[in-house]
Design brief:
By secondary structure, the protein is of the alpha/beta class. Helix 3 packs across helix 4. The chain has a five-stranded parallel beta sheet with strand order 4-3-7-8-9, with helices on both faces. A two-stranded antiparallel ribbon has the order 1-2. Helix 6 (about 160-165) links the parallel strand 8 and strand 9. It has helices at about 5-10, 30, 35-50, 65-75, 130-140, 160-165; strands at about 15, 25, 55-60, 80, 90-100, 100-110, 120-125, 145-155, 170-175. The longest helix has 15 residues, at about 35-50. The chain starts with a helix and ends with a strand. It is built from six helices and nine strands; from the N terminus they run H-E-E-H-H-E-H-E-E-E-E-H-E-H-E.
């Protein structure tokens, strides 16, 4: 286990029965309140992808924004938000995807990425992979290439990595 992974695991809180009974929520807010640790997360993600030719980082609403925007700055590329329906002010395109309890939708501006772009998808957590797979599909729908998906936390036992197929997956912490 790396020094960063050890520090992250010491910082991430388990919140039982949130948002519903039987779920153990991985709370990242202690990471966010520690500037050195948050900076180390962004630095590590940037180091992993500094030579990948990334032209855009896409972060999913809402915790993907927290890590995606500073990572895009560090990689000197665009940051693109993938948002819930009705949140974007310009013409947008979306994809619907399945959740264990229904369906959801993510949208991006139609000009957010295009065929010239190499995209890194970033979020705080990989669980079942549904949101990340939908984001990848949305990026592909706009003609861009998804280079990789990067997460702070991966819940290995839920198999989200398998849902993402051939797309490279990197996670800083595994449970």
């Amino acid at each position: 286990m790396s020094d960063l992974e050890t520090k992250l695991k010491a910082s991430i809180r388990d919140i039982p029965d949130f948002p519903k009974k039987g779920i153990i929520f991985k709370d990242i807010t202690p990471i966010l309140s520690d500037p050195a640790l948050l900076g180390a997360v962004i630095d590590q993600m940037a180091a992993l992808f500094s030579d990948a030719g990334i032209t855009a980082v896409v972060g999913m609403e809402s915790r993907g924004f927290i890590f995606g925007a500073p990572l895009a700055l560090k990689l000197n590329c665009a940051f693109v938000p993938a948002r819930k329906p009705g949140k974007l002010p310009y013409t947008s395109v979306g994809v619907d995807y399945e959740l264990e309890y229904g369906t959801a939708r993510l949208e991006m501006h139609t000009d957010a990425v295009g065929p010239q772009d190499k995209v890194l998808v970033v979020d705080d957590l990989l669980a079942t992979g549904g949101t990340a797979a939908a984001t990848n599909a949305l990026i592909t729908k706009l003609g861009a290439k998804v280079v990789a998906n990067c997460f702070v936390i991966e819940l290995d036992f839920l198999g989200g990595r398998d849902v993402l197929g051939a797309v490279s997956v990197t996670s800083l912490v595994h449970y």
